[in-house]
Write a structure and sequence with these properties.
758 residues; 20 strands; 12% strand; 23 helices; C8orf32 fold; 3 domains; four-stranded antiparallel beta sheet; alpha+beta
């Protein structure tokens, strides 16, 4: 595309000369109504580019509401001034005063207003506010080309800040728009600069509004094409160029979110964090059969102590897990694991930035592969990344989820070690005595501890209701209120009731906080675990087999089922997180391997289809051969008829010409030739002479061609036929068929082809 476009085509104002570059530059960003089409297109593109960059930054959710509101108002006022032709620019002196006043405000912003977790984070937010301030002042004071360049640079800084502050998929959409507007701005600026520096006048307006619209549409199409091409090329480079993840700015600006319904301790009666939130906490990409994940829960932390209202963990000592290889951690096997059946699950976890260092996995994890900062395990077999950087994390897990059968657990001994009794049989000092009486009554039919645990679980499931609505619970005795008054609650009440009831009858139990399986996304091929999937259940200890999970909570009567649109959008988010945010060299190796496998599969499929087509063609040929052999007589007649027709028509099978040949050779009619038949006869005439080596040139007339023929006898016959042809084709007197036939016979005889007519 040529950047030099004539001013005559693009001008839309009165005659004026651009003899001074300074004069042209002074109206680059400030004027609205006067100027060329490209001037206006450039101004609009630059404003949209700046607005898109700010919206991109605001979409991260990390800006304060005051900044967002003020910038939106400023951009809206500037856009209104541009559309209405009002001069809303401020002087350079005013800009200087504002800049001087902002210096102490920047220091205050860094020290107080934007105070973050680290000085670097505080500096980031204070700098963002500075960039926004500079952008607003430049929008209202831009006059020269340099001002326009400053605005473009400020918009780029806002996009870069947004890239640091977010990992959401919305960034991709806004980035695409930003690239399109940026290319549109650069193209129109280059055209505008070329016109201004050409020092040529613009003597006339566009002839019609359609010309202006045509230029603008051409610029839009060009910008869109280049923008999409740039994104496609950049995407190719992104996936091909080797990439290594580093810790630079990792997690900066990515504030962790409190997980609704999950924490490292449990307070009964606290509904402030129990909400039906759809926030995605993590995703699980299974490598096994989906049926193997039915009922699997993602274990977070186990809590061993209960004071009547709070569950917490006394056993907080952390033991570091040393990696057996780079980013590979082999976890110690818990007591009783060797007596359980082998059932392995292999899966990948994509954990969102959260305010907890808990590592979620299906019980019981044996191998974890991931970039853990410091993986540790405590006395309750809970996993933590104690140097968690409050950023997204992905890791692969191999878990052994096999459980002994009920018949085996029924035979488990009931003798517990001193450590287990001291830790997991403790009860609150002021426990409602009715709880123990209820537990003894419910478990009276059972003969072993497994049946007793099942009896308590079923009793709670069948006789109590699940609800997230706040109940009239006595804050001093929430568990007693749940069991004997409200009889409704959420999972933490059910799990607490079962664990305490079992402890009152001498069965070690503890409460576990984690998440349910989640909903399977058929588009993304993953389990999506959201905040509303947070769950509490119970683990009961059986000597020789370890801790066995029990879930006493009845099903939610109002489950939230994600729609197809939710699944589709979440699949897009999964792709963004897996292949953009976490894309590194290992992903490149995986992508290359998948491409190689797919290419081999395509080659194999193409080869298979080719062999199949070849076999089908061979079979069809055999059937055709058998059909021809079976109908030899009909085939012979068809071939003879085709040969006779070819001889009669000279290879031309058009029906009208065939009829003319038949009349010329066999009919004795005295009727004159029609115009169409005259054309057919001249074609026969040319065929005869072509065989003798005489070819009519396209530039020759029929008379010129006839005079060029050498032998006198043949030339005379050719000239006579030409006169007959012209008379029939263009004259009023048309020769009859016999005359034409005799003339063609003389030509044939003169050319050595006496049997031409026959």
């Amino acid at each position: 595309m040529k950047s030099q476009i004539s001013a005559e085509v693009l001008a839309d104002g009165p005659d004026r000369s651009m003899t001074s570059a300074t004069t042209a530059d002074s109206g680059s960003c400030g004027r609205n109504r006067s100027g060329t089409i490209v001037d206006r297109f450039f101004a609009v593109s630059l404003l949209l580019m700046l607005g898109t960059s700010f919206v991109t930054l605001a979409s991260t959710g990390k800006l304060d509401i005051v900044s967002v509101t003020l910038i939106f108002i400023a951009l809206g006022v500037r856009l209104w001034g541009y559309s209405s032709g009002r001069n809303l620019q401020i002087s350079s002196e005013t800009v200087t005063r504002l800049a001087i006043l902002y210096i102490p405000f920047f220091i205050l912003d860094f020290l107080v207003l934007s105070a973050g977790a680290t000085p670097l984070e505080s500096m980031l937010y204070a700098t963002i506010h500075l960039v926004l301030f500079a952008a607003v002042t430049k929008v209202f004071s831009a006059v020269t080309r340099r001002d326009c360049a400053y605005l473009a640079a400020l918009s780029l800084l806002m996009v870069l800040a947004a890239a640091v502050l977010t990992i959401n998929t919305t960034f991709l959409a806004f980035l695409t728009l930003y690239v399109l507007f940026a290319i549109s701005t650069l193209i129109s600026y280059e055209i505008k600069r070329s016109i201004e520096t050409s020092r040529r006048s613009a003597p006339a307006r566009l002839a019609s509004p359609g010309g202006r619209l045509g230029v603008e549409r051409a610029l839009v199409r060009t910008a869109a094409g280049l923008g999409l091409g740039t994104l496609a090329t950049a995407s190719l480079f992104f996936f091909v160029i080797p990439r290594y993840r580093s810790g630079y700015l990792t997690g900066l600006g990515t504030h962790p979110e409190n997980i609704t319904g999950f924490s490292d301790n449990v307070t009964l009666g606290d509904l402030s964090r129990i909400m039906r939130s759809g926030t995605v906490v993590f995703r699980v990409l299974p490598e096994d059969n989906l049926h193997d994940y039915s009922g699997v829960k993602w274990r977070g932390v186990a809590l061993d102590s209960f004071d009547g209202r709070h569950w917490y963990n006394d056993n907080t000592q952390q033991t570091a897990v040393q990696p057996v290889a780079s980013d590979r951690f082999m976890l110690p096997r818990e007591p009783g694991a060797r007596n359980r059946p082998e059932k392995t699950l292999r899966y990948k976890v994509l954990l969102s930035p959260i305010s907890s260092d808990v590592v979620f996995a299906a019980p019981w994890p044996r191998l974890i592969t991931g970039r853990m900062h410091l993986l540790s395990v405590d006395g309750t077999d809970s996993l933590r990344d104690t140097r968690y950087a409050l950023s997204s994390l992905q890791y692969e897990v191999v878990s052994q989820v096999g459980l002994p059968s009920p018949s085996i657990l029924k035979t488990a001994p009931d003798g517990y070690s001193r450590e287990i009794r001291l830790l997991y049989l403790r009860l609150p000092p002021k426990l409602d005595p009715r709880i123990k009486t209820l537990a003894e009554k419910v478990t009276s039919p059972a003969a072993n501890n497994y049946d007793r645990a099942v009896q308590v679980r079923n009793y709670l499931r069948d006789n109590f209701g699940y609800t997230l609505q706040e109940q009239a619970v006595d804050p001093s005795d929430p568990l007693g209120s749940f069991l004997f008054a409200t009889r409704k609650g959420y999972c933490e009440y059910f799990a607490s009731a079962m664990a305490v009831m079992l402890r009152t009858i001498g069965i070690p139990a503890r409460l576990v906080n984690g998440f349910q399986t989640g909903s399977y996304n058929h588009f993304g091929k993953d389990f999506v675990v959201r905040a509303r999937d947070a769950h509490s259940w119970v683990e009961v200890y059986f000597p020789g087999y370890g801790w066995i999970p029990f879930d006493p909570t009845p099903p939610d009567p109002r489950p939230v089922v994600p729609s197809d649109l939710d699944d589709y959008m979440d699949a897009v988010t999964l792709f963004w997180s897996e292949w953009i945010v976490n894309y590194d060299f290992s992903h490149q190796l995986r992508l290359a391997a998948e491409v190689e496998v797919q290419s081999h599969e395509i080659q194999s499929d193409v080869g298979h289809q080719f062999h199949r087509l070849r076999d089908q063609t061979a079979g069809l040929a055999l059937k055709l051969e058998a059909g021809l052999v079976a109908h030899k007589l009909l085939l012979l007649l068809f071939l003879l008829g085709s040969a006779a027709g070819g001889i009669l028509t000279g290879g031309d099978w058009r029906p009208r010409e065939l009829k003319f040949i038949w009349s010329l050779n066999f009919r004795q009619s005295e009727r004159p030739l029609s115009v169409e038949e005259a054309t057919f006869s001249y074609g026969r005439f040319l065929n005869v002479l072509r065989r003798k080596g005489y070819r009519k040139l396209p530039s020759e007339t029929p008379e010129e061609f006839a005079r060029r023929i050498g032998p006198p006898l043949l030339r005379d016959a050719a000239q006579e036929f030409t006169r007959l042809y012209n008379a029939a084709r263009y004259g009023g007197k048309r020769p009859s068929l016999p005359v034409v036939r005799d003339t063609l016979k003389r030509i044939s005889a003169a050319s050595g082809q006496a049997n031409f007519a026959g």
